[in-house]
Write a structure and sequence with these properties.
Layout: E1 17-21, E2 24-27, E3 32-35, H1 38-41, H2 50-62, H3 73-85, E4 90-94, H4 97-113, E5 125-129, H5 138-142, E6 160-163, H6 168-173, E7 179-184, E8 187-188, E9 194-195, H7 198-211, E10 214-218, H8 233-236, E11 242-245, E12 256-260, H9 281-294, H10 297-318, E13 325-331, E14 334-339, H11 343-354, E15 356-357, E16 359-361, E17 365-368, H12 376-391
Parallel strand pairs: 3-15, 5-6, 5-7, 7-10, 10-11
Antiparallel strand pairs: 1-2, 2-3, 4-12, 8-9, 11-12, 13-14, 14-17, 16-17
Bound molecules: pyridoxal-5'-phosphate (PLP).
Pyridoxal-5'-phosphate is lined by residues 96-98, 101, 133-135, 185, 189-190, 218, 220-221, 246-247.
Length: 399
Amino acid sequence: MSITPLMPVYPRCGVRPVRGEHCHLIDEDGTRYLDFASGIAVNLLGHSHEGLIKAIQEQAATLMHVSNLYGSPQGEKLAQMLVDNTFADTVFFTNSGAEAVETAIKTARAYHQNAGDAGDASKHELITFSNAFHGRTMATISASNQTKMHHGFSPMLDGFKYAEFDDLESAKALMGPNTAGFLVEPIQGEGGIRPASQEFMQGLRDLADEHDLMLVLDEVQCGVARTGTLYAYEQYGITPDIVATAKGIGGGFPFGACLATEKAARGMTFGTHGSTYGGNPLAMAAGCAVMEAVANEEFLSSVREKGERIRTRLEQFIGNYPELFELVRGMGLMLGIKMKVESRPFFVHLRENHDLLTVAAGDNTLRVLPPLVIGDAEIDEFFDKLSAGAASYKIPEPA
Ligand SMILES: *Cc1c(COP(=O)(O)O)cnc(C)c1O
């Protein structure tokens, strides 16, 4: 047999972490990496955060899982915290980001199709955007125009039309009698840390209002304090109808959620949706600990302040290497460095030669996604490693 026990769908690198300490990962062989990847925007509170560990340990020792056949004091508590701190009136808990987006898609369709006389059963299409990433399930790959994710998995699910990201006219051109709504990442993550413009987001909101469509945001990566507000939509001054959230929400404990207004959730009635694990007490305990830590102005303003500081320093820094770097973009601590050369070899160089972990992304962009709890020492260490990395970098010859 030559297949590996772990199904070989990931080209895993040589780093094999066995322990996490605050903003560092320690590898099997003892190497200490500065973690500015955070498990892809997940470990908001860094590694081995005392409050999060305590919440999970205590809940694990009390009650881990019961299913959704029973009442959920733990789920009600976290749902109420999310409702109190966001646009949402109601929450469905999932186990991952893709499932949160799936729930969001179903909620948008059901808004039209399960609303009796108020609805319109023909409305099922969501307009999505170029270079989007919404997850790896059938519906979520179908929602993205990135054909590399479709290959080998045909047929795609019907009901998605792809417009150009950040181009309102192209979205308008795809609207028709079957349109149910828009699905968009306010800041594209995998696509290269590309924030949508204010006009675009406001334009989608206006179109949705005019035509009774659902504005669905995928905030799986940019949500949960990452950009310096609890959710990124706040910075656009718009109110969505439905939001998918995950990644940071458990601080490393895997779960997600679909948030919706009462109106948007009108089709999600008894029996229409479900999940065995979704919202189990253990996940809810992790979520409450994360919300307690991040959903306050002191924490959020510290994220904005650190984000600004890193961004200013990054902009100065890239000026020293005009042959390598083009620009810095993003919001809060969701930052991207767009390179003029292929970014992946540089990302590998930082990891292999300077013990600095970042995340590669589309559009030759290096994602800088530190834990939100970084301090001055980690910021300085980041710039030391990045500067040394840029100084020692030799652009590979084209193959
Ligand atoms: C990561 C991500 C997802 C998928 O989340 P999973 O937990 O991997 O299923 C969906 N949308 C966006 C924007 C993401 O960044």
